[in-house]
Write a structure and sequence with these properties.
The protein contains 10 helices and 9 strands. By secondary structure, it is an alpha/beta fold. The protein has 2 domains: about 170 residues, Rossmann fold; about 90 residues, Pantoate-beta-alanine ligase, C-terminal domain (Pantoate--beta-alanine Ligase, Chain: A,domain 2, 2-Layer Sandwich). The chain has a 6-stranded parallel sheet, sandwiched between helices. Helix 2 links the parallel strand 2 and strand 3. It is globular and about 55 Å long. It starts with a strand and ends with a strand. It binds pantoate.
C-alpha cells in the first residue's frame, strides 16, 4: 500500500493512474477502522480499479472539543488492517495539510441540516461537507463509498454532489453489526461492559419496529420505541424518528421509502443507528 500525507503528491500519483485508464474508488474515514470500514473498501475493490482510503480526523465536524480530543486514533493498527485488506493507497494528512487557516465554508443543505443529527450537532454537516469536498477535489474519485450507518450523512453528501455537480457516484453500503446486533462504530471502544449491554436496546428496538411496522400507526409505534429506549438504564435517548428515506421528513404510512433513525447517549458515548423499514 502506498501512503501519502501530501495532497499534491497524491494528486500527481492518481493523475498518472487515471491517464492510464484506471477508475478510482474512494473510502473516506476518520480511522479507528473496523469491519464496517473494510466492507466499504471491499465494495470499492469490487467496483473500481484502484482503491484509495483516507484517514483524517476532521476538526471542523466536531462541535464538542472533548469529543475531538478523545476520538480514537490507532493509526498503526489501521495501516495494518488496510494492508491486509489489500488497499492500494492511504491518504493520511495532518490538519495543516487540509486547512490553511480559518476558512469560510457554507453549503445550503436546507432542512437536512436542521433535522435529527443536524439539530443535535449544529454545524456538523457543514464540517463534513467541507472536508469531503476537499477530499473529493484531491482524489477525484469515480465512485465514493459511504456507510448507511450515517444515513443522514449519505443524503447530505448526495445533496452536495447534486448542488455542485460533482462527477462522482456515491454508493451507500449496508450497516455491519456485531453478532449481538450492535452496529459497528469506531466509538464502540469507549463502551464499558455494562454500556455495551445497554446499547443493544437500540438495534433491538429498530428490529422490533421493522417486524411490527404494519400493525400500528407510525405515531404510536414511535412512542413505543421511545419508551423502550427510555426504560433502558444508562441510556439517554436523543431522538427516535420514523422518517421518509429520501428527505428525512416525518414519514407517513404512504411513504415509499421509510427509515427509522435513533441517537442516544450510552454512558458517556453517543451512538447512532438506523434501519431501512421500507426500501
Ligand atoms: O463518516 C465519517 O467518518 C466522516 O464523517 C467522513 C465522511 C470521513 C468525513 O470526515
Amino acid at each position: 500500500m502506498k501512503i501519502f500525507d501530501n495532497k499534491q503528491n497524491l494528486s500527481n500519483y492518481l493523475n498518472e493512474l487515471r491517464n492510464n485508464g484506471k477508475s478510482i474508488g474512494f473510502v473516506p474515514t476518520m480511522g479507528a477502522l473496523h469491519q464496517g470500514h473494510l466492507s466499504l473498501l471491499a465494495q470499492s475493490q469490487q467496483q473500481t480499479d484502484v482503491s484509495v482510503c483516507s484517514i483524517f480526523v476532521n476538526p471542523t465536524q466536531f462541535n464538542d472539543p472533548k469529543d475531538l480530543e478523545k476520538y480514537p486514533r490507532p493509526i498503526e493498527s489501521d495501516i495494518q488492517k488496510l494492508e491486509q485488506a489489500g488497499c492500494d493507497i492511504l491518504f493520511n494528512p495532518e490538519v495543516n495539510e487540509m486547512y490553511a487557516g480559518n476558512e469560510q465554508w457554507h453549503l445550503d443543505l436546507d432542512e437536512l441540516e436542521a433535522l435529527l443529527e443536524g439539530k443535535f450537532r449544529p454545524g456538523h454537516y457543514q464540517g463534513v461537507t467541507q472536508v469531503v469536498f476537499k477530499l473529493f477535489d484531491i482524489v477525484k474519485p469515480d465512485m465514493a463509498f459511504f456507510g448507511q450507518k450515517d444515513y443522514q450523512q449519505v443524503l447530505v453528501i448526495q445533496k452536495m454532489i447534486d448542488l455542485l455537480h460533482l462527477p462522482v457516484k456515491l454508493v451507500m453500503c449496508p450497516i455491519l453489526r456485531e453478532t449481538d446486533g450492535l452496529a459497528m462504530s469506531s466509538r464502540n471502544i469507549h463502551l464499558s461492559a455494562d454500556d455495551r449491554k445497554h446499547a443493544l436496546v437500540l438495534s433491538r428496538t429498530l428490529n422490533w419496529l421493522k417486524q411490527n411496522f404494519d400493525l400500528s400507526q407510525i405515531a404510536s409505534l414511535t412512542k413505543q420505541c421511545e419508551d423502550f429506549i427510555k426504560a433502558e438504564p444508562g441510556v439517554q435517548l436523543e431522538y427516535f424518528e420514523v422518517a421518509n428515506g429520501k428527505n428525512l421528513r416525518n414519514a407517513d404510512q404512504g411513504s415509499k421509502q421509510i427509515v427509522a433513525l435513533v441517537a442516544a447517549k450510552v454512558g458517556n458515548t453517543r451512538l447512532i443507528d438506523n434501519m431501512i423499514i421500507r426500501d
